[in-house]
Design goal:
single chain; 168 residues; alpha/beta; six-stranded parallel β-sheet; 6 strands
């Protein structure tokens, strides 16, 4: 890994495992002594599957700005309005983390979904990427990768489901 060089990585696609892949990057980075911050969006504040990350603090710090337990897509319109402000607070926190160089690896989990919901724009993501160029790694996840972001990515991994015989 080249220290001092900005690497922007994305895990996107319709398949499951994007967040898990990003968390794998975090565990790897933390094992190398790097500081890691994960900011999760659109999953509510009760995403139990990743509560184990709290056990990895202070090496990996997890932040969720949403107040509702349910994921954003399950909320009523009145709840979405308030949660949108909470989400924007999370985006502003991400901007501050990047601007101040507060960590070596920053994961913005499901931030691409904020574009799909018209909460932020692809241009907002570009501004985050361009804030500074001396962090080690920025990892983004979401279902869709807007074409205008591709040129800003160094590593792109598309996660697609090939087979699923489980019953949900």
């Amino acid at each position: 890994m080249n220290y001092g060089q900005r690497i922007v990585q994305v895990f996107y696609g319709p398949g499951k495992g994007k967040t898990s892949a990003a968390v794998g990057q975090c565990i790897r980075a933390a094992s190398l002594g790097q500081s890691v911050i994960i900011i999760q969006f659109l999953k509510g504040n009760d995403a139990e599957e990743f509560n184990f990350l709290e056990k990895l603090e202070p090496d990996i710090k997890l932040f969720r700005f949403e107040k509702e337990k349910e994921s954003f897509s399950e909320l009523l319109a009145s709840q979405k309005k308030e949660e949108t402000q909470n989400i924007l607070n999370g985006v502003n926190f991400a901007r501050k983390v990047i601007d101040t160089g507060s960590c070596d690896v920053l994961v913005l989990d499901e931030i691409l979904g904020l574009i799909d919901l018209d909460i932020i724009t692809a241009e907002d993501i570009i501004h985050l990427i361009e804030l500074r160029d001396d962090y080690t790694r920025l990892v983004l996840t979401g279902q869709n990768l807007p074409a205008e972001l591709v040129d800003y990515m160094d590593v792109i991994s598309k996660i697609e489901l090939e087979k699923d015989t489980t019953v949900n």
